[in-house]
Amino acid sequence: MIRPGTQPYVLTIGESMGLLRQQQPGRLVTQRALEFGFGGAESNVAIGLSRLGIDAVWCGRLGDDSVGELIERELRAEGVQPWVIRDPDAPTGLMLKERPTSGTSKVVYYRKHSAGSRLAPTDVPDALIEQAALVHVTGITPALSESASEATESTLRRARAAGVLTSIDLNYRAALWNRVDAAARLTELVALADIVFAGDDEAAILLGHRSVPELAAGLRALGPQEAVIKLGERGCFASAGEQTLERAAVPVTAVDTVGAGDAFVAGYLAERLAGSSLPLRLETAVTAGAFACLTAGDWEGLPRRQDFALLGAVDPVQR
User: Fold this and answer.
1) Span 231-245, mean pLDDT?
2) How many C-beta atoms lie closer than 10 Å to residue 311's C-beta?
3) Residue 8: closest CA among 227, 271, 273
4) Which pLDDT does position 95 carry in this prediction?
5) Does the annotation mark 262 as catalytic?
6) Residue 146's domain spans which residues?
7) Which residues contact 174 (CB under 8 A, 6 or more apart)?
8) CATH code: domain of residue 67
9) Three-class SS of residue 33?
10) What is the mean pLDDT of residues 55-81?
11) Which residues form the Carbohydrate kinase PfkB domain (predicted)?
12) Is 316 domain-assigned?
């Protein structure tokens, strides 16, 4: 429960799902064991922020089932405060992460009619929004259903009215909607955000194919004060105020890249709320993204600040 007068927090809203994951690469039909956990873009960001010392709240619907109980329990264990609506009429969604080869993964979702897809504007209380330092959403939630789309817009509008900073990560999912519908809806939502994150391919859905600096400028022209283009192993590009800046990625041998974008966003927002410079925001963002790639799982590899020095460690054994 969030108490008025406590330290400001980041509020994320969206979907979190149970996760079945192959332990070994190869065809799924030959596997005899799967790991079970959970994941979701918005809850990943909340965990990333919590590990970096920022209070975070995740708001969403979960089924009144064991999977929902596990997700709520794990979020609390990670220092995230869950504001959960337990839905007795819909199950918590599931996703299956296959590993066809050691270097590739494929994620299949079982979310139709899930509790998360039933998120509605009334599920997100005004007070929860108004007490936040920042509200973060993604382009996944509005693609789930009409009510979830309305909840996303309503949350952003109420945050803006309350003077709360807002951010959106486009996070386009082709399995959920087509590019034309996504472009129309995401353009509306980006206009309600102060900060927008997007891959260059995602930004092109809204703006057409352009250079990376032109994509950042085009996103800012829609309304946000800051635009950050995520380029994966090529690093990132940001435009904020009068500044534009490129940052190379931190080179690592990736184990699993799922969740790296969420880690990047958490790193950037943590520094943004700390009042850090744009170069430091991007440095923390790419470092957090690199850490996420070193571990299998959506959020398990998200770093704490004391972990940052490990990427440059010369001695692999600490004593």
Assistant:
1) 96
2) 14
3) 273
4) 93
5) yes
6) 10-301
7) none
8) 3.40.1190.20
9) coil
10) 97
11) 9-301
12) no
Helices (H), the chain: 41-51, 66-77, 126-130, 146-161, 179-190, 200-207, 212-221, 260-273, 278-292
pLDDT in tens, 4-55: 445 689 999 999 999 998 878 888 888 888 899 999 999 999 999 999 999 9
Q: Which sign, positive or negative, has the C-alpha torsion 24, 16, 161, 188?
A: positive
Active site residue: 55, 169, 256, 262, which one?
262
pLDDT digits (tens, 9 = 90+) for 114-141: 999 999 999 999 999 999 999 999 999 9
Count up the domains in the chain and report the number: 1
Task: Count the Cβ atoms, other than its own, within 10 Å of residue 29.
Answer: 5
Q: Which residues contact 38 (CB under 8 A, 6 or more apart)?
A: 16, 17, 18, 19, 67, 70, 71, 74, 298
Nearest to 59 by CA among 20, 11, 112: 11
Q: How many residues in total does the chain contain? A: 319
pTM above 0.90, yes or no: yes
